[in-house]
Amino acid sequence: MSASTVAAARPARTLLARLTATLAAALTIGAAAATLEMAPACAATTSNWVMTGWNIHQLDQLSPAVASHFFNTPASYATGPSTTTSPVSDGFTTAGVLVYNSYAQFAADLASHAIAPSYTWVMYDLEYWAATPLAEQQNPAAYMQQFGQLAHAHGLQVIEAPGRDLGLVPGAACPLTRENLDHWYLRCNIPGAAAANADMIVVQDQVNTTNPAEFDYLYTTARTQAQAANPAITADAEVSTTYGTAAQMATAAKSARADGIYLNATTGTLGRASAFLRTMQKAGY
């Protein structure tokens, strides 16, 4: 090749190199944008995760990276029943929540100064079971109001988690008619009553896990009612390893675009809980 041919070829090669670099940069930016678009928008709105402190500890033994990702943060919550011992362990920074099934017991513990001062959150989980006194089951709105007001008066933040099964309680102030429990829960405005004097509510939607449309409907409608009563409320949706596979749990959780997720699990189903959380993490949560 002559010197003149080489000289003429150099600008062409330089231009080709520049075009190649520009194209590579564009492809990189496009790939990054596509990755961002693939992450569900609802992942950004899900700000907290809730689980029992014992389950979080067990999860940390089984899947440390998963446990740390979801629960080693002050934005998430570890629940437990002990008035003196925090449910938070393993050095995690998650917030401890003292759980009550009875307003009467909560009031008694406050009066006797039984609650450790380290607690800043309490939860009222009233359901159709022996742990909740019948009077509280029959009139959940009144007792949720009392619980929230009493807790706030003592500087505690409040999570209210009324069960749908309260519609089955004999002598209920808002009795079940010819309807399913989801419709009873909404017709009686249980979410609004829960939110009025709370900082967070949990919508016990787990029974609808295998029906994402119903899961989404109950959560979304409940959240709307809750926000009407308290615009500052945080509304979590509950999923449980009792209902559906890990994949079905993830589908339901993503369908609701919830403010947070309460994960109910048992020791025997912790593997399913871990699989669910891994699926959610891969989806950008």
List the topology elements.
Blueprint: H1 3-38, H2 41-45, E1 48-52, H3 53-62, H4 64-71, E2 77-80, E3 95-100, H5 103-111, E4 121-124, H6 134-138, H7 140-153, E5 157-160, H8 181-187, H9 190-195, E6 200-203, H10 212-229, E7 234-240, H11 246-256, E8 260-264, H12 270-282
Parallel strand pairs: 1-2, 1-8, 2-3, 3-4, 4-5, 5-6, 6-7, 7-8
Helix pairs in contact: 3-4, 3-12, 4-12, 10-11, 11-12
List keywords for this structure.
eight-stranded parallel barrel; alpha/beta; 285 residues; disordered N terminus; TIM Barrel; globular; 50% helix; 2 domains
Outline of the structure:
This protein has 285 residues and is of the alpha/beta class.
Largest sheet: 8 strands, parallel, barrel
CATH class of the largest domain: Alpha Beta
Residue share in helix: 40-55%
- The gross shape turns out to be globular
**Which superfamily, in CATH terms, is the homologous superfamily of the largest domain?**
Aldolase class I
- Beginning-to-end CA distance, first to last residue: 60 Å
Order of helices and strands: HHEHHEEHEHHEHHEHEHEH
Strand content: 5-15%
